[in-house]
Amino acid sequence: MAVQLSFLILTGLTGIHSITTVSEVSVKAGDLISIPCLYDSQYRDNVKYLCKGYYYNYCSYAIRTNQPNSEKFSISDDKTRRIFTVTMRNWTNQGSDYWCAVEVNGRPDVRKYFHLSVTGGSPSLYVDRQEITGFNGENITISCYHHNPGEMKWCRLGSSCVTGSSGSIDGTTVTINASISNVFTVTMSGLRTQSSGWYMCVKGDLQMPVHLTVSERPTTIADNLTASSPSPEAVKHSFGLASFIIPLSLLALALVVIMFTWFNLKRHNQTKKESSATTTAEEEVTYSDVQHVRKTSSKRSGLDIKSNVDIMYSSVITAQVPTVQMVDAENVTYSALVQAE
Ligand SMILES: *[C@@H]1O[C@H](CO)[C@@H](O)[C@H](O)[C@H]1NC(C)=O
């Protein structure tokens, strides 16, 4: 007990184990890399930063949580999970020395060193994506590519590791398949929300952090439509329907207008035919007054326009044309068109 207590005091004073992070990471020049740094809960509200340089006393700030992100570096602090993450892009082919650190007032800042080796070709240990998403109750497989000697492991940051072909981390079953050379695949089965967090592929002295997010598998729109209470998706869907109805009704209106016009033209032609049938070819017909009378009937909709409009010819004057050449009854003149509702 006394030993434990003195150990606690010692770690509290020196800052040992206050930050947990990678020790050596390999990255291709120009690629983005995210490095998670796990800190103690007592530093929740402290300023976190990344410092560049081999010697801590001479290192220079690369990025701080109380300063805006730069072009090359960005930092985010997940206070619930006690992890701050730095994302950077290195263009030079040289390795770099960094410190994950937490600012502490009145005491030396707590910090942890890591080395970033930058390669021209493929890195000694890498993954396809550092950010992966899994679904509750399902499995996820991660491929870790390597050409680096040493033991292969799958670890959770700040927790345990699985070595060999199978094991478990925080209640999630992990199997490692290394049957293909230069790649080992890690399968995590029976994912739960608590499985979310930072993990690492480890090969020898190299690590590659991978961030896993476990969420509920999204339900389909069909499921939402059958559900009794409208879900956000269903509401969105009905919005989509509304925005579909508006142009549809406009289209219907346009159709009605077209039909109306067409009908009038047809009627026009019919009257021409009728007039040419009833009058002799030599006659020129003049309608001095034409009235469209719409019957006001409540049950009729705009679509029964045909039966809805009557054309009344209040007076038809036929005039004798002296010339015999006027054969086509094209010379129809409407002197006045009155449309009455
Ligand atoms: C390991 O992966 C290889 C290739 O994908 C496959 O053929 C083999 O069955 C796997 N082994 C296990 C134990 O799952």
Question: Describe it for me?
Answer:
The protein is α+β, with helices and mostly antiparallel strands and 341 residues long. 21% of the residues lie in helices and 42% in strands. A 5-stranded mixed sheet has the order 2-9-8-4-5, with no helix packed on it. Strand 6 (73-78) and strand 7 form a beta hairpin. The longest helix has 47 residues, at 232-278. It is extended and about 95 Å long. The N and C termini lie far apart (101 Å). The model is unreliable at 1-16, 227-241 and 271-341 (pLDDT under 50). The chain binds 2-acetamido-2-deoxy-beta-D-glucopyranose. 2-acetamido-2-deoxy-beta-D-glucopyranose is lined by residues 177, 179-180.
Summarize the structure.
21% of the residues lie in helices and 42% in strands. It has helices spanning 2-14, 221-226, 232-278, 305-308; strands at 19-20, 24-28, 32-39, 48-52, 60-64, 73-78, 83-89, 96-102, 110-119, 125-127, 131-135, 140-146, 152-156, 161-163, 166-169, 172-177, 183-189, 197-203, 206-215, 283-294, 309-320, 333-334, 337-340.
Work out the helicity level: 10-25%
What is the count of DSSP helices, taking H or I runs of 4+ residues? 4
Mean pLDDT equals 75
Q: Can you tell me the residue ranges where pLDDT is under 50 for at least 5 consecutive residues?
A: 1-16, 227-241, 271-341
Radius of gyration: 41 Å
Q: How does the major sheet shape up? A: 5 strands, mixed
Bound molecules: 2-acetamido-2-deoxy-beta-D-glucopyranose
Please report the distance between the alpha carbons of the first and last residues: 101 Å
Estimated structural class: alpha+beta
Shape: extended
Q: What fraction of the residues are assigned to beta strands by DSSP?
A: 35-45%
Sheet with most strands: strand arrangement: 2-9-8-4-5
Total E-strand runs: 23
Order of helices and strands: HEEEEEEEEEEEEEEEEEEEHHEHEEE
